TrEMBL record:
<dbReference type="InterPro" id="IPR010869">
    <property type="entry name" value="DUF1501"/>
</dbReference>
<dbReference type="InterPro" id="IPR017850">
    <property type="entry name" value="Alkaline_phosphatase_core_sf"/>
</dbReference>
<protein>
    <recommendedName>
        <fullName>DUF1501 domain-containing protein</fullName>
    </recommendedName>
</protein>
<dbReference type="Pfam" id="PF07394">
    <property type="entry name" value="DUF1501"/>
</dbReference>
Length: 481
C-alpha cells in the first residue's frame, strides 16, 4: 500500500519574502533537499503529464446571463441581455461574452450541474470538494477538521511534483467572506491541515470591493468606498548578503549536522517544518518559478491580452504554472463572493464581471491551444451554484434588480484535457430552473477533473492510520469526449 506523498506545502504570503539567510542552521533538514531532488528526477505515485486549471467564480454566476440564456421566456425570466451566436452552429451565449463566443470550437458547456443547497458556504464546500453530502459537524462559519478534503488538496496529496513546485496550487487568495470569515471547503479537512493546498496570496482582502481590481473593482451595494489594492506576486529572493556561494556553504554545513538531527527528524512536526525550508531553498534557485509568478512584469502585450487586472494576472500565472509543471491550479476569480448578484446584476455583469473574465479566459485558451498544451490541460469554470430563474428586487439594499441563489442548476464551461469543443451537455426547462436532460452531480464534475489529471478509478488517499479513502465518488461527465 503506497505511503502518503512526502511533500507538504506552506502558504506563501504576498507580503513575505522567502529569506534563506534568516533560517537558522538547525531550522532545516538537508535530507529533505535530497528527497526533493529525487522527486524532481522522476519518482511519482501516479505518473502523468496532464494538468487542470480550475476556475472558481465565488458568489454564483447566473446561467441566464452567460451560457443558458432563455430569450423566449417572459421578461422577468430572460433578463436584459441578448444572446449572440457562437462559432458553433446552434449554440448561443451572452452578448457580453463575445471573445468566448468566437472560440466555442475550443470549449463545451454543461448546463445541468445540480445540487441541493442555496447557501453560500455549503455550496462552496460541495463544489470545491466535489461531494454533495454534508459532513458531520459542518460549520458554515469556518473550516472544520471534519470537512471533506478539497479537490485541490486531494490532487496535491496523490500527485507528485514534476518540478520544485507542489502539484496543486490555489491563487490568488483563499476565499474569505466580507465579514472576514474563511469559507469552508477549500482545505484538506479530515486529511489534516498538513495537507492543505499551497495558497499563493497575491490579492489583498477588501471587505467592500469586488471583482477584477484595479480597473473593474466595484461594490455590490454602491456605497462609494475606495479600493487601492495592488496585485502582488510572491517575492522570492535571497536575503541581503546571502550569495548563492554562501548558501551552498550553509547547505554543506547542514549536511554535517544532519546525523545529529536524526532523532528530531523522526518527529512529524519537525519533519514537516524541514520540508517547508527545503522547498524554500529550491524555489529560490529556480528561474522557472520566478518567471511563472512574476506576471505583473510580463511583456505589456501579454498583459493586455489577459487584462491588466487581478483576473488577467491570475490566469496568466495559472497558465505559466501549468507550463512549469504544476498539475492543478485553482484560480479564484473574484473573492468575497464577487458573483453574488442579488442586485445590480445587469450593470455589474455587463461592465465589471463578464468583460475581464471573457478576455482572460479567452487568452488562456488561445495560449494553451497555440502551444499544443490544451489537449493535455483541462480548463473548467464553475461557481458554487447558479441564480434563480426569476428576477427579484431587494430595494432596501440594491438600487437595481438581481437574482438570488439557485443550487438546482448551473452552467459550467469545460475545455481541453480531451474535451471536444462546441458541445452542449444537458438541457434545462424553459425558464432555466431545473435540468430536464442529463443532470450532473458535483461528484461527476470532480471525477472529470481527476480523470483529466490521469488518476485511475482505483486512486485513493490515506489518513494518518493508513486507511484508504477512494477519490472517485462519481463518473466523469459524459458526452464531452
Amino acid at each position: 500500500m503506497p505511503a502518503h506523498s512526502p511533500t507538504r506545502h506552506p502558504l506563501i504570503s504576498r507580503r513575505t519574502a522567502l529569506e534563506v539567510g534568516s533560517v537558522s542552521l538547525l531550522g532545516m533538514g538537508i535530507n529533505h533537499l535530497d528527497a526533493l531532488r529525487a522527486q524532481a528526477a522522476g519518482g511519482t505515485k501516479h505518473r502523468t503529464a496532464k494538468s487542470c486549471i480550475f476556475i472558481f467564480l465565488s458568489g454564483g454566476l447566473s446561467q441566464h446571463e452567460s451560457f443558458d440564456m432563455k430569450p423566449n421566456a417572459s421578461a422577468e425570466i430572460r433578463g436584459e441581455f441578448d444572446p449572440i451566436a457562437t462559432r458553433t452552429p446552434g449554440v448561443q451565449v451572452s452578448e457580453h461574452l463575445p471573445m468566448l463566443a468566437q472560440r466555442s470550437h475550443l470549449w463545451s458547456v454543461c448546463r445541468t450541474l445540480s445540487h441541493g443547497t442555496n447557501e453560500h458556504s455549503m455550496g462552496h464546500h460541495i463544489m470545491l470538494t466535489g461531494r454533495s453530502d454534508i459532513p458531520t459537524g459542518f460549520n458554515p462559519g469556518r473550516p472544520m477538521t471534519t470537512d471533506h478534503p478539497s479537490i485541490a488538496a486531494i490532487a496535491g496529496d496523490v500527485l507528485r511534483s514534476r518540478t520544485n513546485l507542489p502539484p496543486a496550487i490555489v491563487l490568488p487568495d483563499k476565499i474569505v467572506h466580507r465579514s472576514g470569515r474563511v469559507i469552508p471547503g477549500q482545505f484538506a479537512g479530515r486529511m489534516g491541515s498538513n495537507r492543505d493546498p499551497w495558497i499563493i496570496e497575491a490579492s489583498p482582502f477588501h471587505a467592500q470591493s469586488y471583482g477584477a481590481f484595479p480597473d473593474y473593482a466595484f461594490d455590490h451595494q454602491q456605497r462609494g468606498g475606495t479600493d487601492k489594492r495592488v496585485f502582488k506576486t510572491p517575492h522570492l529572493k535571497l536575503s541581503q548578503g546571502m550569495t548563492h556561494s554562501r548558501m551552498s556553504n550553509r547547505i554543506q554545513l547542514l549536511k554535517e549536522l544532519g546525523a545529529q538531527r536524526q532523532m528530531l527528524d523522526n518527529a512529524g512536526q519537525v519533519e514537516s517544518f524541514d520540508r517547508y525550508r527545503a522547498a524554500a531553498i529550491s524555489l529560490l534557485n529556480d528561474d522557472k518559478v520566478h518567471y511563472a509568478m512574476d506576471v505583473t512584469s510580463a511583456d505589456d502585450k501579454i498583459q493586455e491580452r489577459y487584462g491588466k487586472n487581478s483576473f488577467g494576472w491570475s490566469l496568466l500565472m495559472a497558465r505559466r504554472l501549468v507550463e512549469t509543471g504544476v498539475n492543478l491550479v485553482q484560480v479564484n476569480l473574484g473573492n468575497n463572493e464577487s458573483w453574488d448578484t442579488h442586485g445590480n446584476i445587469f450593470p455589474h455583469l455587463k461592465d465589471k464581471l463578464l468583460p475581464p473574465t471573457d478576455r482572460a479566459v479567452s487568452a488562456l485558451l488561445d495560449d494553451l491551444h497555440e502551444s499544443g498544451q490544451l489537449k493535455d490541460t483541462l480548463v473548467v469554470m464553475c461557481s458554487e451554484f447558479g441564480r434563480t430563474p426569476k428576477i427579484s428586487q431587494l430595494a432596501k439594499v440594491y438600487a437595481n434588480p438581481g437574482r438570488d441563489h439557485w443550487g438546482a442548476t448551473q452552467s459550467i464551461l469545460l475545455a481541453g484535457g480531451g474535451v471536444k469543443g462546441g458541445r452542449v451537455v444537458g438541457k434545462t426547462d424553459k425558464i432555466g430552473g431545473f435540468p430536464i436532460d442529463q443532470p450532473q452531480k458535483p461528484e461527476n464534475f470532480a471525477a472529470t477533473i481527476y480523470k483529466a489529471l490521469g488518476l485511475p478509478q482505483t486512486a485513493f488517499w490515506q489518513d494518518d492510520v493508513d486507511r484508504p479513502h477512494y477519490i472517485y465518488e462519481g463518473e466523469p461527465i459524459p458526452g464531452l469526449t
